[in-house]
Amino acid sequence: MLTGFYGVHGAGFLPLPNHGRYPRADFFDSQDHLVTECQALHSMAVGSRLAQLLGRRAAMPPAGAIADAARCPGVSESPAA
Predict the structure, then answer these.
(1) Distance from C-alpha of 68 to C-alpha of 42, rounded to nearest angstrom
(2) pLDDT in tens, the chain (81 residues)
(3) Please, are residues 52 and 44 in contact by the beta-carbon 8 Å criterion?
(4) Is 54 in contact with 20 (CB distance < 8 Å)?
(5) Residue 79 burial (CB count, 10 A)
(6) CA atoms lying within 13 Å on the CB side of residue 43
(7) Rounded distance, CA 75 to CA 52, Å?
(8) Which region holds residue 64: left if phi is over 0, alpha if psi is between -120 and 50, else beta?
(9) Distance between CA 78 and CA 26 in Å, rounded?
(10) Residue 34, beta-bridge partner list
(11) Could you say which of 1, 11, 31, 39 would form a disulfide bridge with 6 (CB–CB 3.0 to 4.6 Å)?
């Protein structure tokens, strides 16, 4: 639905496998703020999808970011990059 809306208006939309839905445990104070570990996981997923979209190879995230992402509370339910 959002893809079509943005497309009609000349913009792109990058859907992720989870459609932007995360378990409640992935947030720290509201539905708007992912915990650091889950933000790292989300950023890796976005980077991977952007690389595919642009036909480029994504760089490997730093080891610390990978370790952070692995500690995301809903990591078994969140999208992998």
Answers:
(1) 11
(2) 788 898 899 888 888 888 878 888 889 887 788 998 998 988 998 999 899 889 999 899 999 889 989 999 877 644 444
(3) no
(4) no
(5) 19
(6) 17
(7) 22
(8) alpha
(9) 9
(10) 27
(11) 11
Q: How is residue 73 written in tokens?
A: 């509370």
The pair of structure tokens assigned to 53 is: 């979209």
- 69 C-beta neighbours (distance < 10 Å), count: 23
CA distances from 30 to 25, 26, 40 (A): 10, 10, 18
Q: Residue holding tokens 């809903």?
A: 74
| The two three-digit tokens of residue 58, written as one number | 């994504």
Residue type, 62: P
